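Hi R.,

Here's the chain you asked about this morning:
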Amino acid sequence: MKKAINRYGDDYRRRPWLSDGGIGFHQTISDEVDVMKVKKRERRNAEMGQVPIVLLLHGFPKIWYSWRHQILYLAAHGYRAVAPDPRGYRDTTKAPIDDPTKFTTLHVVGDMVALIAALGVDKVFVVGHDWGTMIAWSLCLFRPDKAKALVNLSVHFAPRNPHQKIVEIFCVAYRDDHYICRFQEPGEIEVVFASLGTKKVFEKFLTHRDPDPFHFPKDKPFGALYDTPVILPSWLSEEDVDYYTKKFEQTGFTGGINYYRCFDLKYSGNFLFNMLGKWKESEYSGQSVPVGGLAYYVTAPSQDND
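And the predicted structure, written out as tokens:
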């Protein structure tokens, strides 16, 4: 199997994917933007490499670009890396961002199943981060036949509990200014982000490293971080921040925030927790191994067949 050739070294500021053009690649280092028709919606996928396929699912507020380093590494080691923007995010168009009810688990998992089919394979390796982990957990729970293995970062698996409302739990435990609570009212947090400016929002989000619960007070967005000077880490360049900023300035944050607004929808099954039917007693088989206190690796999912 041929390996992708990295012509540009490790300087991501010189990479062609930072421009609007995009370059076809496979044996070059570009992001091969492949616009695919999936369930009558255009899904823009950053892909690199050849089979076997690794499906990389990002969280909020991210886009496929957050996997840029991993795409290169996986391609260089003989994998085909596919990093889709889920519905509601910048490079996936025609998603109904004005209707949070279209962002339930069944919707987003259905999107991933359709994407896997469009890629022409039966199974993929699944890697998730943040909200991507919750999509990944559900994909493997509902359709274990589509996953070879699962690696999730930052969010562990939470079993179903039909007696709990997730948003209420966060608001009681961490107060109403916890970011999940603040994200619930349609349009409210978007106004706050607009007043701060998209670039400042990303600078604060992408450099946040406090392990304590993340609060977003109404009188001081980002809390103590609001007045803290932004110092970019070595792995995050000014050009990286500008790329995120440009993409989110085009369509805003609502699509990604809708995932939070879907937590407690009455008929969506409490998003990830209040699922009925044959999945209600489902468990994950295989060994879960913490990596650095953040990552969990699950060898294979299983489901109750009763």
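The chain is about 30% helix and 15% strand.

Let me know if you need anything else.
M.
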